[in-house]
Amino acid sequence: MKIPRQEYTAEFKELAVKRVKDGLTAGAAAKELGLVEQTLRNWVKAAAAGTLNGAGAKVVTPEQMELSRLRAENVRLKRENEILKKATAYFARDTL
């Protein structure tokens, strides 16, 4: 299963970068905001270069951002559920 690509609003990216610039580590800020640490590091680097929301950046509504996040979470939860089903079947077979 492919995880859908998440899209974030410009305001969200700026807020995340501001958290790092205010002294929070990239790892802590990423965890707090539900991001991958490398994504946040890329945003900080892009903000320093002045290209965080480069020309041609597509406008993403908060609803689209939330939908993207929920889709990714749904894929992750399905994957976790499959692992649990396989583990249950494996351990049930061992106890018989």
Give a structural overview.
By secondary structure, this protein is mainly α. It has a single domain (about 10-95), classed as Arc Repressor Mutant, subunit A (Orthogonal Bundle). About 70% of the residues lie in helices and about 0% in strands. The chain has four helices and no strands. It is elongated and about 60 Å long. It starts with 9 loop residues before the first helix and ends with a helix. The mean pLDDT is about 85.
How is the topology of this model organized?
Elements: H1 10-21, H2 26-33, H3 37-49, H4 62-95
Helix pairs in contact: 1-3, 2-3
Compact summary:
By secondary structure, the protein is mainly alpha-helical. It has four helices and no strands.
* Broad structural category: mainly alpha
Strand content: under 5%
Might you state the CATH topology name?
Arc Repressor Mutant, subunit A
- Counting DSSP H or I runs of 4 or more residues, the number of helices is 4
Label the overall shape.
elongated
Q: Kindly give the count of domains.
A: 1
- Which CATH class is shown? Mainly Alpha
Rg estimate, integer Å: 18 Å
- Major β-sheet, in short? none
Overall strand count: 0
The CATH level-2 architecture is identified as Orthogonal Bundle
Question: Order of helices and strands, N to C?
Answer: HHHH
Helical content band: 55-70%
CA-CA gap between termini: 33 Å
Low-confidence runs (pLDDT<50, min 5 residues)? none
**Overall pLDDT:** 84
Descriptors:
0% strand; Arc Repressor Mutant, subunit A; elongated; 96 residues; mainly alpha; 4 helices
